[in-house]
Amino acid sequence: MHSVVVGTSGIAAEDVIAVARGEARIELSDEALAALAASREVVDALAAKPEPVYGVSTGFGALAVRHISPELRTQLQRNIVRSHAAGMGPRVEREVVRALMFLRLKTVCSGRTGVRPLVAQTMAAILNAGITPVVHEYGSLGCSGDLAPLSHCALALMGEGEAEGPDGVVRPAGELLDAHGIEPVVLREKEGLALLNGTDGMLGMLVMACADLARLFTSADITAALSLEALLGTDKVLAPELHAIRPHPGQAASAANMLKVLAGSGLTGHHQDDEPRVQDAYSVRCAPQVAGAGRDTLDHARLVAERELAAAVDNPVVLPDGRVESNGNFHGAPVAYVLDFLAVAAADLGSIAERRTDRLLDKNRSHGLPPFLAGDPGVDSGLMIAQYTQAALVSEMKRLAVPASVDSIPSSAMQEDHVSMGWSAARKLRHAVDNLGRIIAVELVAATRAVELRERLAEGGPGAGFTPGLAPAPATQAVLAAVREAGVEGAGTDRFLAPDLAAAEGFVRSGRLVRAAESVTGRLA
């Protein structure tokens, strides 16, 4: 089994995904254990002094004015976890909770939080055992960290609350720890606070969204190319020299992807034949510009994620010179902004894909294709309602693109008077990413059916094969074969359509669409 070693420096996005989705085992480096011990010595020394230190010998938030005596500090740390574990609503997905816990462990191991090595070792043991604390949808304002979600995780570390075992059954956390031979942790000075004060939930969701969107942008380039082909459009607009004079790297990458998919096509370039067109419609001609802008947005989001993955987010922090200082690094604004930005890019990519689907289904704009790509229009409705479903998804995408990060509700008796709402931005982006996969799947169903219908419209009729010189690109043919093998049927008499759409969604989500195209084109960007 793959292992991820956690040290004192940052971790890679691939490591987060390996732990969250791939069940990778976690190992703590000797360097991390030494850093944990050294920073704990600093906290212990401060705890022994009479002067109050925030998080060590004081209350929290608006209650930081109270100095807590030594005999109450264990209770203080336990109480902050219990009181802050105040989430409500549906359970958060297992992969999100695992990412959140792993990222908090990464920060703990930086040696900047002042917790004992035992705490980090127990966190790793819980993840390795496949124990996942129950975390709820609502409870984080994206400032002072993802407080409620992280508190539910810290509660499990103490052997309290509920968690899901590796068998998927939710049980009391104490029972699960005992079953795996894990001793609950009794938290000491600062440790409760250190487990709660980070942007780990929103960052984990950002990392996974970036990985998913990278696959979906490539998928959208492929379906856009298939739609262009089915509409007998021109690939001349994809020429590298045209994109070089507007040097956005994402645009060039998307155009290059489409050109690779269309290489060898006999269907492109017929826009001057039966129905002369000077240019293709925007949704076809400008596909690289829209998808490319999204790609550049994704690159920026990855840069922010990389910086955050290298960060140690806590308050207060133990500095290398031994000082323990308060700060505002827990504010989620940098992450929240790009989460919202990605939702905008995803919504626009879904919007242009839906416009191409609608064009394929409209006999007045599809250049010879039957209405709604139906087998016997009038008797059959074809993909009419598939486009309705796609339009409903696009409409929701637009609502999900409304930014969460511009909102702020003061909390903690006005001590925490400006918050990022980054957790909310991350939650809605997850919905947007799921919807985008479905939207691309509908375009795939329409475009593959339309390309096949070109065969039936050609001389020779159904089953005769594509007319010489009018065959689709080899990459398109590879996609057609793979999508049919995946259970997505082609044109014909109307049938129960939802299973086809579900199969297409799975085909896109799993990356099989990209792999099918790449079997001919080689690696796509």
UniProtKB/TrEMBL annotation:
<dbReference type="Pfam" id="PF00221">
    <property type="entry name" value="Lyase_aromatic"/>
</dbReference>
<dbReference type="InterPro" id="IPR024083">
    <property type="entry name" value="Fumarase/histidase_N"/>
</dbReference>
<keyword id="KW-0456">Lyase</keyword>
<protein>
    <recommendedName>
        <fullName>Histidine ammonia-lyase</fullName>
        <ecNumber>4.3.1.3</ecNumber>
    </recommendedName>
</protein>
<dbReference type="GO" id="GO:0004397">
    <property type="term" value="F:histidine ammonia-lyase activity"/>
</dbReference>
<dbReference type="InterPro" id="IPR022313">
    <property type="entry name" value="Phe/His_NH3-lyase_AS"/>
</dbReference>
<comment type="pathway">
    <text>Amino-acid degradation; L-histidine degradation into L-glutamate; N-formimidoyl-L-glutamate from L-histidine: step 1/3.</text>
</comment>
<keyword id="KW-0369">Histidine metabolism</keyword>
<keyword id="KW-0963">Cytoplasm</keyword>
<dbReference type="InterPro" id="IPR001106">
    <property type="entry name" value="Aromatic_Lyase"/>
</dbReference>
<dbReference type="InterPro" id="IPR005921">
    <property type="entry name" value="HutH"/>
</dbReference>
<feature type="modified residue" description="2,3-didehydroalanine (Ser)">
    <location>
        <position position="144"/>
    </location>
</feature>
<comment type="similarity">
    <text>Belongs to the PAL/histidase family.</text>
</comment>
<dbReference type="InterPro" id="IPR008948">
    <property type="entry name" value="L-Aspartase-like"/>
</dbReference>
<feature type="cross-link" description="5-imidazolinone (Ala-Gly)">
    <location>
        <begin position="143"/>
        <end position="145"/>
    </location>
</feature>
